[in-house]
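Q: Could you fold this chain for me?
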Amino acid sequence: MRTSLFRCSFGLALSFLVANFQVAQATQPNAYVLAVGVDQYQKASKLTGCANDATTAGQFFRSQEGKLFASVNTKVLVDNQATKENIEREMKALSTTGKAKDHIVLFLSGHGDKGVGGWRFLPVDFDSRNPVSTQLTQQAIFDLAQAAADKGQTVWIMIDSCFSGMLRVNAGPLLDRYHEAGQGGVLLMVSSAATQLTASMPTFSPFAKSVDEGLKGEADADGDGLVTLKEARRFTFYRLHQKLRDRKVSGHDCEMDHSPSLSESMILAHQEKSFIVRGKLTKQDPMDKVRQASHFKSFETTLPAGKEFVVDLMSGNGFAGPHNPGYFPTYLRVEDGKGAVLAERDFGGGGTNARTILTPAQAGNFRFVVSSSDNGAVGDFVLRVRTKDAYTVATIEPKSTSPLGQFTGLNPGQPFPGQPLPGQVVPGQPLNGNVFQGQLNAADPFDRMMRQSRHKVIEVKLDAGKVYQIDVMSNAFDTFLRVENSQGQQLAFNDDGGEGLNSRLQFRPTQTGTYRLIVTSFNPGELGAFVLSVQNR
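A: Sure. Below is the predicted structure, expressed as C-alpha cells.
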C-alpha cells in the first residue's frame, strides 16, 4: 500500500520555499571582477581547463547581480588576451574603482611558481629567459588588495595555480592589517599548499570547479539560500579531495584565509532555498515496495511545473570508512502525487550517493523515497532538492595537441546491417589531442539503445591491452556513453560513472583497431553541448 503515513513520520508537512533575495540596490555593494585563465602559453608548457575556469568565474559573479550585488562589472582575459601588460592594466583599474563596501575580485588560473621573491603568476607571454619582466609578482597582487581594502572594500583573491599556498603564507601581514568589522578586508582562496602542485583536468581544474559548485548552492548546508564563507570552506575542501580521489590524481590541499574584519558568516552567494531533510534510516522503518529487502523513509513537497531540480540523497561523501560512520549505499526514488515512479537512482552523486534531475511537467506534490541499494543497509542521510544551475558553463576550446595514439578520420562511415544510420561524427580537430567537443541536436538520428535519445559517434583508434578512461561531460543533459567495435557490436556502456550526471568508464581493448564512442542522453530528447575525453590510464 502507499505509505503517505511516513511523509509525516517526523510530524512534518514540508513545502518547497522559493526565496527572492532582491534588496534595494542603494544598500547593495557593487562587484568589480577580473578573471584570468591561461592554457595556451607562448613559451611555457600548455595547460587545460584554466580558460574555462576564468570564464566560469566571470559567469558566477554575473549571476549574483541583483542578488548579492547591485551591479557586477566583469573583465575576463583568456589565453592571448592574458599578457602581463593587459593583466597589470586591468589590475590598476581595479585598484582605483568603486566605493567603500564594494567588492573587488581577482581570479587567476594558470601556471604558478615560487622563488626568492615569493610566489608569482605566469601570464601567457611569460619567458623563462626574462622572468623578472614577464611575471606577475605576489607584491603586485598585494598592492591591489591593499589599495582596495584601505578604501573599505572587500577583496577576493582566488588563485588556482601551483604553489599558490605560498601566497597565503606571505599574506599574513596584509590580512592582519584589517581587524575591525565594517572595515575593508581580504579573502584569500588558493588551490594548494606552498609546496604542492595543483591538478588540472581536460575541461576544468578540480579546485575551481569545487569552488564554483559550492557557490552555486551545493555548499549551502542549511538550505537557507545563503552560501557563507564557513560553508564554502568546508564544502570546497571535501569536494576537491573527492574529485582528486575519483580521478586517481595526486592530492593537494586547498586553503582559505581572511582578514579578522571579515567573519565566517560572510555571505559569498545568494541562491534559491533548498528543501533539506537530515535523518537516519533504521531497522524500525518499514520495507520499501520496490527495494523489498530494504527499509525506507519518504517525504513529500510541492514543486512548480517546468523548472529543473537537482535531487541528491547523500550518506556522507558516499564512501565507507572511519571518516563516515553512518554510511550506507543510497537508493533514491521520486514519485508523483499518484505514486507513479518518475526517477530512481543509486548513483550519480559521488561514490554511492544518488542524484537525479527532475523537471515536473505539472505543479503538484512529489514524493521522495529514501532507501538503500544494499539489502537491509541503514544509516545517516541527507536529502536535498534544489533548483538546477541558472546558467551553463561555456567551454573554451584548447588548441594544443598531444595525441593519444591515433585518431581516425572524422567521417560518418556506412550504416551497419540492421542498424540505424550512425550519428554524425563530431567534425573538426580534436581538442588537446584526446578531447572532443560536440553538440547533440534535433537533427541527429535516434540511438539504437536509448531509442528516444539522439546520438553522435566519435571514432578513435585504440591499442590492445591499454586501459583508457572515457568521459562524457555536459552541463546541458544527463549523458549516456556507449562503446562499440568497428562492426557495431556493443562492448561497454555507462550512465553516471563520472561527476554528477556525467558518464565515465574504464575500457581495455582486446584488439588494436577503430572503436566507436557513442554519445547520447539518458533522458529522452535531451540536447546540448558536450565534451568527450579519452585518457590512457
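A (continued): Residues 446 and 454 are 4 Å apart (CA to CA).
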